[in-house]
Structures are given as C-alpha cells and as structure tokens.
Amino acid sequence: EGMSFVIDTAEDVSAVGAVARHIAEASGTSSSRFVADADALLAEGRSAEAISHLLTGVDAVFGGEEKDAEVVFTVLSALAAKLSPAECGRPVSGLLAALTADGPEAALRLRCLFILYNALPHKDVRFDVLIGALRFAAKAGLGDSMAPTLERMEQATMGASMAHLRQIHLAVAELVPAGKPKLDALVKYLVTFEAEVGAAAKEALPHAVSAIVEFIRTPNLYSCELTDLHILQELSSDAANAAISGLLTTLMDGQVAKVVALVDGNKKLLDTVHLERDALLLKARLIALVKLGAADSEVAYAEIAKQLQVPADEVEMWVVRAITLKLVDARLDQLKGCVSFYKCFALTFGQAQWQDLQTKFGTWAANISKVEASVLSHQSPVAAST
Predict the structure, then answer these.
(1) Which pTM was predicted?
(2) What is the Cα–Cα distance from 339 to 293, expressed in whole angstroms?
(3) Across-strand partners of 300?
(4) Is 80 exceeded by the pLDDT of residue 58?
(5) pLDDT of residue 358
(6) What is the dihedral of CA 28, 33, 38, 39, to 10 degrees?
(7) Of 105, 131, 253, 324, which is the most exposed, with the fewest CB atoms less than 10 Å away?
(8) How far is the C-alpha of 263 from the C-alpha of 224, rounded, in Å?
(9) Dihedral, CA atoms, 86, 90, 93, 94, nearest 10 degrees?
(10) Spatial separation of the C-alpha atoms in residues 283 and 290, rounded to whole Å
(11) Per residue, what are the HEC states of 214-243?
C-alpha cells in the first residue's frame, strides 16, 4: 500500500517518522519499535546513525510503488545533506550500497541515486555517488538512461580530485558502447597520467592495453591519439606489454611488412586484440596508404603494392576503398601507373600536428600582412587619408 501523506523534508522528525513507518510496513518489521528507534536517534542529534538504522530495511521499498521509493530516498538524501563533510561519508556509503545492490527495479534505483547525488552539497561524496551511479548503470545495462549525464560530464566533473576524475573516466568507459566512445573515455583517463612515470603510472598500464585493443579492433577507426601519450613509452618498457605497444606503433607508422612479421611471430597478439589476421591487415594497409599519400603527392602503383604487401593488380582496389572511406582524396592515373593524392586523413593529431598548424597559421598571417601593406602602398594619398 502506498504512502497516503505528503512528506515535508524540511521537518526532519515527522518526515523520518513517516519514512520509518513505511519501511517497517514494507519489510514486515515491528513498526512501533522501528519508528521509535529512528525518532530517538534523530532527537539525540545522531542523524548519521538514524540513516544507518533506516537502511536496515530499506530494500523492501523497491517492491512497492515507485513514487514511495523515491520519497523515501528523497528524505534520506535530505537528511544526509545536512551532515558535515566529516559525518556524511559513512551514511552516504550506506545509501550508495543500498541503491547499487543487486535487486529489482534497476531503473528506479538509478533515479534514486541521482536524487542522492543532487541533494548532496559536499563535492567528494557527490563524486563517490556519481561514480557509483555510472558503474551501476553499466552493470544494469542502463547506458541509454545516462545519455544526458554523459553529455554534461565535463561540467559535472569540475572540481574533482585526480583520483575521482580517473575513476569517473573508467566508469564511463565501462558504460558507453565499444568502439570510439569507449576509446575516448580511456584516452581521457590515460591523459591524466602524462606527468606520471614508473610505479606511479603502473596502474594505468592495463587500461592503456585496453585502449590499444579498442582502437585496433574497431572497424573504420583510423584516427589514433594514443601514440603521442607518455603512457605508451611506459607500456613499451614493460616486458609484459611491449608487444602490444610495438604493434600499435608499427601499425600507425604504416609498416605493413613489420605488422605481418609481428603477428606471425607472436600468435598471441591476435588473441590479445580479439581480431582476425585479415581484419588487422586491412586496417594496416589502409593506414599505410594514407601515410604514403601524406608523404608524397604522387606515388607509383609499384611503390603502393610494395608498401601494402599486395599484388600490383589490387592497388586500384585499395585506393578506391580508401577514397570511399574518406581517408584520402586521390586520382588514379592508369596511363602513368601512379596515384595523385590531394588530401589525406589525419591519422594522429599530437604535438607535431599542433606545431605544423601553428606554422601554417603564422605563414598565413604573414601573407595577409604583406597583402595589406601592398594595398596601402599603392593607394593614392587622398584615398589613404580618407
């Protein structure tokens, strides 16, 4: 039976008493004793203990009306919000554990988690709740429900400590779909280790491997931010992970022959990236073609065949495939037996690319200044004065 009264969360005693009665009825506990204990704790100013007391039977509210459960957690969240930062840690942990426990009504539990999150004024416990909500949503398969939160994640994480920020990025990586969304979350996590070396970076190594695997095995994903990250150097010096790091570096360098040698010489590599050999070589050849076009505006068929490790009569097929995927803008010249490249997809955009862009902007600005100076110098004195 649902609650038949309105609760004013501003009145702690009456609100908590009403919630205590509802929890007792839902859980089959002796109502009078349960309510009396809650009232006594609250009267003594022991709000944190009152929350813990109410949580002993709170799971039963998920078997009733959804609005009743929301009211219960609104009251408990309001009570927790009035605690000092030193006091609220334990009760908030209890609320978080109750809401993320295995049980029915996952979508309702997630809504109640955000009731708690929005009620709390202290940022540290708020971030704990946010991380818990992200992990719970991932476990419960409620990724779609989290879309609005993910869109505002940058704003939501302002003021987060480095430890919280890393946990948030990992929780997002668990929640979002495989492929680019997952890779983007992992890259954000790995970027936080740019100043870390040695033992301090060790915790990030397994996630760096996950990011590499995600990039390599995702079809039609060619832009890679991993190669410029410091963590890749840490990974390459780690004996257990040097092979996967080497595979990524070789792949992004466009060295198809070396990719073939790596995977043929280490059969476990393909198992690590969860990819068939042909799928890996498809990606390697397309990246190699982009690298060739970026390095030289005109490349002979024979050179393409050599670098891609394919027969000469397949060169045009590979170029057409790259054009279709918008990796290159190119024209085939069958008479000359060469390919003219006009534009190539940026496979990476790291420090070198930023410097190149800065140089181009500097040149552009200088050219504009010269044009302005030339125009002014050719104006008549009258025109110039006006």
Answers:
(1) 0.82
(2) 9
(3) 338
(4) yes
(5) 57
(6) 140
(7) 324
(8) 20
(9) -150
(10) 11
(11) HHHHCCCCCCCCHHHCHHHHHHHCCCCCHH
Give the model's confidence band at 243: pLDDT under 50 very low, under 70 low, under 90 confident, else very high. very high
What pLDDT score does 353 carry? 47
Binned at pLDDT 50, 70 and 90, residue 262 comes out as very high
DSSP 335: T
Written as six digits, the tokens of 183 are 């890779």
Residue in 70, 98, 78 with CA at minimum distance from that of residue 8: 78
300: Cα separation from own chain's centroid:
41
Structural contact between residues 26 and 59, judged by C-beta atoms closer than 8 angstroms: no
Report the DSSP beta bridge partners of residue 341: 330
Phi, psi of 330, rounded to the nearest 5 degrees: -145, 165
Contacts (Cβ under 8 Å, ≥6 apart) of 366: none
| Strand partners for 299 | 339
Question: Tens digits of per-residue pLDDT, 271-312?
Answer: 888 888 999 999 999 999 999 999 999 999 999 999 999 999
pLDDT digits (tens, 9 = 90+) for 120-155: 999 999 999 999 999 999 999 999 999 989 999 988
Q: What is the CA radius of gyration of the chain?
A: 30
Assess contact for 226 and 204: CB atoms under 8 A.
no
Q: Which residues contact 297 (CB under 8 A, 6 or more apart)?
A: 340, 341, 342
CA 209 to CA 140: how far, in whole Å? 25
